[in-house]
Automatic annotation (TrEMBL):
A GO CC term assigned to this protein in UniProt: cytosol
GO biological process, one term: proteolysis
Family label: Belongs to the peptidase U62 family.
Top-level taxonomy: Bacteria, Pseudomonadati, Pseudomonadota, Alphaproteobacteria, Sphingomonadales
Occurrences of domain Metalloprotease TldD/E C-terminal (ranges): 231-446
InterPro entries: Metalloprtase-TldD/E_C, Metalloprtase-TldD/E_cen_dom, Metalloprtase-TldD/E_N, PmbA, TldD/PmbA_N, TldD/PmbA_sf
GO MF annotations, alphabetized: metallopeptidase activity
Segments forming domain Metalloprotease TldD/E N-terminal: 26-90
Sequence intervals crossing the membrane: none
Listed Pfam families: PmbA_TldD_1st (PF01523), PmbA_TldD_2nd (PF19290), PmbA_TldD_3rd (PF19289)
Biological source species: Sphingomonas suaedae
Domain called Metalloprotease TldD/E central: residue spans: 130-224
Protein name: TldD/PmbA family protein
Amino acid sequence: MLTPDEAQTRVHDAIARATRAGADAADAMLSAGESLSVSVRLGALEDVDRAEHAELGLRVFCGTRSASISTTDFSPAALDTLAERAVAMAREAPEDEWAGLAPAGRLLQGDVPQLDLDDGALADPVTLRATALAAEDAARAVPGVTNSEGGSASASRSIWALATSHGFTGAYAASNHSISASVLAGETGAMERDYAYHSARHARHLESAEAIGRRAGERAVARLGAGRVRSGAMPVVFDPRVGNGLLGHLSSAISGSAITRKTSFLLDAMGSPIFAPDISVVDDPHRPHGLRSRPFDGEGLPVSPVALVEDGVLQTWLLDSASARQLGLEPTGHAVRGIGGAPSVGPSNLTMQNGKLPVETLIADIDYGVYVTELSGQGVNLVTGDYSRGAAGFLIEGGEITRPISEFTIAGTLQAMFRALVPANDLELRYGINVPTLRIDGMTVASG
């Protein structure tokens, strides 16, 4: 695999070739990496997968016209042909007055921040197999577990490099390690499935395979005998592993593309309260070892922690350079991109800060409600804010989580849900988007 220095050399060279081919401006991104994963089922090896990739994408501008192209062939002749084709394509493309590189004066200067994202490790298949087996064995050992969808363990390393024709070149390495298990409990005709997993940048930060497997088994068994919930308006409590989706909807609604196209239910919400006064949401790209940490954005701009919501009030849009120009604002360092095409917008490590109440206190006054552990369906309209999802979880009766329930729907509007949302104080930084347990009163619950 390429080193970060080698990757920087390649993207810088691609820019030089694009300029020689007649481009007025250009940027280039390179992604290279290797991955190894092992899966097992019922104690036997099921699959070993190893992959390597290296791809370079080139975006060129001829005036306000642009084109993007990519290649896996890094030979000098292939890169010359790539640059020539990209320029020819750009000259025939439609004009876009908002497109272009990021403002030169905003580019990251100096050294790339060191976020300790790479542990340099790519475990061997024997080690990964043993880890996957340990996770599945622990899940299958839970009384009530009757079958398995398998256990898995994986490791990967990648290099990202970006260069622009107006002065930025940067690269960084990142690793990722994960363990998962998925099992079934109960007998045929009344079986329930659940899972558990953990991912981390460094292998040493992973939970033990045994803990992950045991959690998967216990979750599956807890769902046995699922009943129905009565329909009506009631409190809904979101487990953190599904509640984080609400922040995903928030970030989509405040993205530059949604605002410029006027397709967001938060279109007129800037500077207004959208949550309760004590709620804050922070985006932190500099979190050491963070699953979405990054030292610069997809256009070469510096990134830094920013409060998206502070004391309940919406503070900023998420903007790349194109959407910022269209809105007459400055880019916020939230450009993300793949190898092909123009940048889009996305958050990094997104977190809703802890509330004040323990989970037990949060639900103590709920006479009848639901605790949601699984969501299904895509019934979210970010233009209107309408929200309707299939769900499964547990009934809350007399302030306690009691029996499993399934096949019901929860519905409301994101505007009302955000305003009514109350967070617990059990925040854990396990995912790219993290929230504590969340309570929302007054949602509509309908039994299937």
